[in-house]
Amino acid sequence: MDANSSIFPWFARAVRCGLVLAGLFAGTGAIAGTTAPLTVLGLRCEELSDPRGIDTVRPRLSWKLESNERGQMQTAYQVQVASSADGLLEGKADLWDSGKVESGDTAEIYYGGAPLVSRQQCYWRARVWDKDGRMFESAPAFWEMGLLQPSDWQARWIGRTTDDKVAGAPLLRRSFALDGNIKQARVYVCGLGYFELYLNGKRVGDHVLDPGFTRYDRRDLYLTYDVTPLLRRGDNTVGAILGNGWFNELHRTAWDNDQSPWRAAPKLLCQLEIEFKDGRREVVDSDESWKTSDSPIVYNTIYCGEIYDARREQKGWSAPGFNDSKWDGVLLVQPPGGVISAQMMPPIRVEQTFKAAGISEPKPGVYVFDFGQSLSGNARLSVRGPAGTEVTMTYAERLSKDGRVDQSGIAQHLKRFDAKQRFQADTYILKGAGKENWCSRFSYDGFRYVEVEGFPGKPDKNSVTAVFFHSDVPVMGNFACSNPLLNQIAAAARRSYLGNLQGIPTDCPHREKNGWTGDAHLASELGMYNFFPSAVYNKWIQDLADEQRPDGRLPGIVPTSGWGYQWGNGPAWDSALVLIPYYQYLYYGETEPFRRHYETLKRYVDYLTSRAENGIVNIGLNDWAPYKTQTGAAITDTGYYYVDTKVVALAAGLLGKDGDKQHYEDLAMGIKTAFNKRFYHSATGDYDNGSQTALSCALYQGLVDPENRRRVSDNLVAAVEKANWHVDTGILGAKYLLNALTENGRADVAYRVAAQKDMPSWGWWIGQGATTLWEQWNGDDSRFHVMFGDIDAWFYRALAGINPDPASPGFKHFFITPQVAGDLTWAKAEYNSARGRIVSEWKLEKGRFCLKIVVPANTTATVSLPVCDPSQIKEGGKAASESDGLTLQKTEGGRSVFLARSGAYFFTGPMGAH
Questions:
Q1: Which helix (H) or strand (E) holds 357?
Q2: Which residues contact 371 (CB under 8 A, 6 or more apart)?
Q3: Burial zone of 651 (CB within 10 Å; 0-12 exposed, 13-18 middle, 19+ buried)
Q4: pLDDT band for position 895 (50/70/90)?
Q5: Which of 839, 848, 844 is nearest to 904 (CA)?
Q6: Percentage of the chain exceeding pLDDT 70
Q7: Do residues 623 and 729 lie in contact, with contact meaning Cβ atoms separated by under 8 Å?
Q8: What is the CATH number of domain 349-470?
Q9: Residue 737 and residue 746: Cα distance in Å, rounded?
Q10: Is pLDDT of 913 > 60?
C-alpha cells in the first residue's frame, strides 16, 4: 500500500485536480509543468469559477500566478470586462477597463465599471506585468448576473396543496409552444424545500438537494440555469418535483424542526426566459396555468428517508405530448416570506458511486451491505421482481452484535418522541417491469452499512451501491507522511469534513444534520487547507446574520427553527460568526466578509460585553466531550470573548473605523487583564484547574503574558505527561493543545500525542476501524463527527510546516517551518493557496535534512530549516548563501531561517538534534 492509498476517494479527486506531488521539481529553479515565465490562471468571480446568476452588483475578481522563474512577481495588472466574448477578444471592454494599475494585488479586485443590471453577461480577463515589464494575459472567464430587483420576478409561488402534513412529493408541469429560432434561454427557480426541474423530459442540471437550507422566512435561494440546449421550436414542457426537506419537517425532533415558523407545504417559483434570434423575448413562469399531480414519492423527510411506489409512475409526465387532463390545477400560494437571493456557492453533487466491500446475511432474507467506509449520501437499488414487492434499505454507521444495523445511537433524538418512527430508511415498491433502478431524491444519510429487507432473490454487489455526495468544493491540498496512521487520520478528517458539508457545515450527516456553530469553526481550517469552501462559508455566515437577534444573541445551530438561543450556544460556539470571516481573511486575504457583516460582528461582541461580569463571560457550553478532565466554560468562553474582540478591532482598522478600532483594542486589553487576574495562579504557573484545555486555551488564544509563557508551556507538557502523553480534552482543547505545544517549541510532545494508538486518541479510533472521526474518545454515540478534525490542519501547519502570515494574509508572505518529530522520516504537502501552489516536502536521508519547496510567483516565504549552521546548507547543489532568491535572516533555536522569493528550491544540510 502506498502512502496515499488510505485517502481514497479524496486522493482520486486530488489526482483529477492535478495535485499529485510526484515530478514537481525539475532542476533547482523551475517548477515542473510550468513553461511560461508567468501564467495567469485560476480566475474567479465571487470565489466561484464562471458563476451564473449572481446578485452582487460589485463582484470581487481574483486570479493566481504561476512561473518557471525565480523571483517572479506582478508589478501591475489590468482587468477588462466586456458584454460579449467576441468583444473581449477584440479588446472592446465596454463594461470596464481598469487600465494599467501598478499593484501586486491578485485577489479581491472589485469590479469598477458600468452599473451591472439583471441578466448581464460579463466576459473578463486579467493582464499582468511581471518584474521585467513583460505583459501576460489570462484565458477569458465569465460571470452572469441574476435577477437583481424584486420587479424582475413575474413568476408567482405555486403548489399542489397548503396542507403541511402531506408527506408526498408533488409533480408540477406546464406545456408551452415556441415559435422561432432560440438564441438563449435561462431559468430562474426556487423550489422549497427541495426541487428537481425538468425540461422536455430531461433533468436540468446535476445538483443534489437544491436549494440550500436557510431561514426560509428570511431568505430563500434561487438557482440560475442555462437551458438553451433543452428547448426546441414547437411544443415544450417544463416540470418539477418538490420535496419537503428542511422546509416542511413532518416529525417531532429534539430541535423543534416540526415547529419551524416557516413551515408550509412544498412550493415552487419558476421563471423561464427565452430570447429569440429575432430579438423577441418570451417568459414562461409559474402561475395558475400549471397542472399538478401526486408523484410516486408518497413519503419524504430529511431525517426519515423516502417511500417510492413505482407503480404510480406516469411515464413522460415532464415531456411534450403527455395527457395531463386528469391532473389538478395548481394553487397560488403565499410566498415563504424571505428575501429571494441567488445561491452563490458550489452545489451539492455526487462525487462517487461504489460497490460494497462485503455482504452478510445475519437473518434469512435480511442482507447487510458493508461499504468499507462511512459516507454521506444514499444507496442506489437495482432490482427485478414482482409488482408490489417492497424493498427497504435502512442506513447506519455501525452493527449490532447480531450483525444487523444499529441505529440506537443516532436515532435517539427522533425516536424518543415515537419509538416506532422510521429513521434513515428508504423503501422502494416495485412496478414489476424488468430491471428497476432507484435512489431517493430528497433526503440523505450518514452510513457505512445498508440493511436490505424484502429483496426478491439473493442480492449481489451490483444490487445496492453507495452514492457519496456533498458540497462540490474544489480540492486544494494534500498531505502525507511516513507514518501510515497519521495518513489514515488525515483521510478520516477529510472524509468527515466533506460528509458534513451539505450546503451548510454540519455536525454529523445522520443523527442531526444541524449547523452546529462550534463544530463549524473548529473544523474550518481543516477545510481551508484541503478544499476551497469560502463561498459556502459566505452563504452560511449570512445565515448567522439572518438568525442574530437585535441584542446580538446567536443560537447554537444555524439555521434554526428557534431552538438553541437558550442552550447549546455561547462564545465557544457562536464565535463561528467572527472566526470564520477571520480565517477567510487569514487564508484568502478576503476583507469582504468583514465589510458585509461588520455591524453583525460588532453587535455580537457588544452582546458578550453586556453579559460579562468583571471582564469574564460564562454563558455557554464547556469543553464538549472531554475524555476525563472537565474544564469550566468560563475560561474558554472568556478566551473566545478576547479573540472575538481582537478580530472586531482588526476589522475596524481594515475598514477605516479608527474610533472602533481603538475601543475594541482597549476592551481586549481589559479582557486579558481580567482573564489573568481570574484564572492565572502565579504560585504554580497554572491556569484555572491546570487542565490541558485550560493551559492550552491561555497559550493558544494569546492570553499569557510573555514572561510567563515558558512556565505555562512547561506546565502544559507536565499535564500531558500526567495523562501518559495522551490527549485529555474535549473538542475545544483538542484544537488548542497540538497548536499550543508546537507554537511553544514542543512539537515533539504534540507529535507524541497525535500518534498515540490507544485510548484516548485519534489513532485508537482508526484501530477500531474508523474511517471518519468520532464524537467521543471512547467510541460512544456518533461515529461521523468532524469536531475533532483540526488535527489534519495541524499536519499541514506543523509536520509539513505551511503556515499563513497574519501580517500578510492570503499567503502573500507565509512561513515554511517543518517540524521533524518522533519517528517521522518524511512528510509532504501541497497547498493551492489563494496566491498559487505551495509545496513543502522533506525527508531525512543519511543524517541529512532534505527539503523541497515551491513558493508561488508574487509571494515570499520565510523558510526555517532544522540545521544549526547555515554555512552547511546547500540549495540546488551549491551553498545556500550563493543561491539566487535566498537571503539568510537569522539562526535561532538550532534552526536556520531564510527569506525565499518565488520559485522552486531544494535544500540539504546536516540534521541537528530534534
A1: none
A2: 354, 355, 356, 357, 447, 448, 449, 450, 466
A3: buried
A4: very high
A5: 839
A6: 96
A7: yes
A8: 2.60.120.260
A9: 11
A10: no
Q: Are 43 and 126 in contact (CB under 8 A)?
A: yes
CATH number given to 496-800: 1.50.10.10
Cα separation values, 682 from 433, 637, 678, 688, Å: 79, 21, 11, 11
Query: What grid cell was written down for 461?
Result: 454487489
Give 152-209 pLDDT, tens digit per residue.
999 999 999 999 999 999 999 999 999 999 999 999 999 999 999 999 999 999 999 9
Predicted confidence band of residue 548 (pLDDT cuts 50, 70, 90): very high
Q: Would you kindly state where each structural domain of the chain is located, as residue ranges?
A: 34-145, 153-346, 349-470, 496-800, 813-910
**Do the Cβ atoms of 784 and 446 come closer than 8 Å?**
yes
Strand 328-329 versus strand 390-396 pairing type:
unpaired
Dist. CA 130–CA 153, nearest whole Å: 46
Dist CA 422 CA 419 (whole Å): 8
Position 419 scores a pLDDT of 85
Instruction: Identify residue 782 by its one-letter amino acid code.
Output: S
CA 92 to CA 81: how far, in whole Å?
Answer: 8
Do the beta carbons of residue 513 and residue 501 sit within 8 Å? Answer: no
Rounded CA-CA distance 269/236 in Å is: 19
Which uninterrupted H or E stretch holds 567? none
Percent of the chain beyond pLDDT 90?
93
Domain 813-910 has CATH 3.30.200.20: no
Q: Is 836 helix (H, G, I), strand (E, B) or coil?
A: strand
Q: Pull the grid cell for residue 104.
A: 501586486
Cis peptide before 559 (omega within 30 of 0): yes
Task: Summarize the confidence of residues 802-820 as an average pLDDT.
Answer: 98
pLDDT in the model for residue 24 = 39
Distance CA 726, CA 710 (A): 21
> Residue 283 carries which side chain, given as an amino acid letter?
V
DSSP structure string for 452-494:
EES-SS---TTTEEEEEEEE-PPB-EEEEES-HHHHHHHHHHH
C-alpha cell at 490: 488525515
Burial of 22 (0-12, 13-18, 19+ CB in 10 A): exposed
Cell numbers that stand for 594 in this block: 468583514
Q: What is the pLDDT of residue 13?
A: 42
Calpha distance 896→659 (Å, rounded): 41
The Cα–Cα gap between 146 and 356 comes to: 42
Determine if the pTM surpasses 0.90.
yes
Going by their DSSP bridges, the two strands 281-285 and 848-865 should be labelled as: unpaired
Q: Cβ atoms within 10 A of the Cβ of 26, count?
A: 13
pLDDT one-digit tens code per residue, 504-528: 999 999 999 999 999 999 999 999 9
- What is the DSSP code (8-state) at residue 520? H
Protein fold of 34-145: Immunoglobulin-like (2.60.40)
Supply the CATH classification number for the domain 153-346.
2.60.120.260
Phi and psi torsions of 369, nearest 5°: -95, 125
In which element (H, E) is residue 712 found? helix 709-722
Amino acid 144: pLDDT: 98
Q: Which of 190, 441, 212 minimizes the C-alpha distance to 336?
A: 190
pLDDT of residue 911: 86
Binning pLDDT at 50, 70 and 90, where does residue 605 land?
very high
Domain 153-346 identical in fold to domain 496-800: no
pLDDT confidence of residue 4:
33
What SS3 state is found at 575?
coil
Q: What's the mean pLDDT when you consider all of the chain? A: 95
> Does 239 score more than 70 pLDDT?
yes
DSSP letter for 659, please: H
- The partner residues of 306 in beta bridges, in order of sequence, read 300
Q: What is the pLDDT of residues 135-153, one digit of tens each?
A: 999 999 999 999 999 999 9
Provide the pLDDT for residue 34. 52
**Residues 281-298, mean pLDDT to the nearest whole number:** 98
Closest CA to 506 of 777, 733, 789: 789
